[in-house]
Design goal:
Blueprint: H1 21-52, H2 54-60, H3 64-90, H4 95-116, H5 122-138, H6 144-164, H7 170-179
Helix pairs in contact: 1-3, 3-4, 4-6, 5-6, 5-7
Length: 180
């Protein structure tokens, strides 16, 4: 494994990146070369796990129209993940652009799931929110500031939809805080 030498290189406390753009580009290329295959496999595994969560939906959701829309959202996410999986291998210079588009599209699909469940359990949905934020931070490569921004957008949207659907009762929210 090639070691990069960065003596006296400063890192921005705001963005978490090297202040020197050449150092940042070198580090980006190094990390890309070392980790592309790993994050691609983890991403595909996560998307297939996301699809498998349709099994409990199938048994719990009685409205066939809602079930169809939820299945469509899950399948769209898997196709998006496969597209991202394939494209990133051949166009790695656009990794951050593809990652941001992938994260934003996944965020919209996550909100769609929350919107289409008949009576979602807020605690389970909060756990899904936490898992998705962990995926953003640990599986999908992107700039640190972008990861924070998308996580905040995801969380604000989640609580906005939960508030509009009147899902945030004191007991469910307190239980969610207790669990996490």
């Amino acid at each position: 494994m090639k070691q990069l030498e960065y003596e006296n290189k400063k890192i921005s406390s705001l963005t978490g990146e090297f202040i020197d753009s050449k150092s940042e580009n070198d580090f980006y290329n190094y990390m890309l070369k070392e980790s592309v295959q790993h994050f691609r496999i983890n991403l595909l595994a996560f998307s297939l796990l996301f699809l498998l969560l349709f099994v409990p939906d199938y048994f719990l959701i009685t409205d066939q129209a809602r079930l169809g829309i939820i299945f469509l959202i899950r399948i769209l996410f898997v196709f998006l993940s496969i597209f991202y999986f394939i494209r990133i291998q051949y166009m790695s210079q656009y990794l951050y652009v593809f990652s941001t588009i992938y994260e934003l599209t996944g965020t919209i699909l996550f909100w769609g799931l929350l919107s289409f469940y008949e009576e979602p359990d807020v605690v389970i949905q909060q756990q899904g929110l936490i898992v998705y934020i962990l995926v953003i931070f640990f599986i999908i490569p992107n700039r640190f500031i972008t990861k924070i921004s998308i996580s905040l957008i995801l969380t604000i949207g989640f609580f906005f939809i939960a508030f509009l659907r009147d899902l945030l009762t004191i007991s469910s929210y307190s239980w969610g805080l207790l669990v996490f």
